[in-house]
Amino acid sequence: MNSMASAPDLNRVDAPSLSSPAAPPLSRYESQKRRDWNTFLQYLRRNHKPPLTLPRCGGDHVLEFLKYLDQFGKTKVHGNGCPYLGHPNPPAVCRCPLKQAWGSLDALIGRLRAAYEEHGGPPESNPFAAKAVTVYLREVRQTQAKARGITYDKKKRKLN
User: Fold this and answer.
1) Which of 121 and 14 is assigned the larger pLDDT?
2) Segment holding 147, helix H or strand E
3) 36 and 111 Cβ atoms separated by less than 8 Å
4) Domain boundaries 28-147, corresponding CATH code
């Protein structure tokens, strides 16, 4: 009998159970979390040679994944040289790139943080909670807000 506990399988891809028809359907959030988790694992397998396993994954790999997703984005982000920088509703089209919206990336990271821990990953080594990821999300939010002429003021704490 083996007394050692087996390590969690962070690379496990959960498939819907076909053997229990009485299982309640997943909520929209749970379904999206599962899809996001599977997409990230697929990204690690397909875009790294040799394929990267999740225990070896760090915040820098999460950043690569977020930048990879920009190619599928639908949010126009005007650059510094664009005449429409700072215009909430530009009067014409420009060549500025489409990117993932900050809100979408923020929600994605939240779901992936939760999925990582649900698959047995220790919270203290969660790559989705890395400082670099937090900083990147903040920079994306500020850049996109500036590109649309929206200011985000930091909320002030109420002093009691």
Assistant:
1) 121
2) helix 131-147
3) yes
4) 1.10.150
For the chain, what are the domain ranges? 28-147
Using the structure block, give the residue that is written with the tokens 């992936």: 112
* Amino acid identity for residue 151 in this structure: T
Task: Look up tokens 């820098």; give the residue.
Answer: 60
pLDDT in tens, 66-120: 999 999 988 888 888 888 888 878 888 888 888 899 999 999 999 999 999 999 9
Please give the span between the terminal C-alpha atoms of the chain, in angstroms, as a whole number.
59
Indicate the pTM of the whole model: 0.75
Label the pairing between strands 98-99 and 75-76: antiparallel
DSSP string, 74-102: -EE---TT-TTTT-SS-SS---PPEE--H
d(CA 97, CA 56): 32
Run of H or E residues at 45:
helix 28-47
pLDDT reported for residue 152: 52
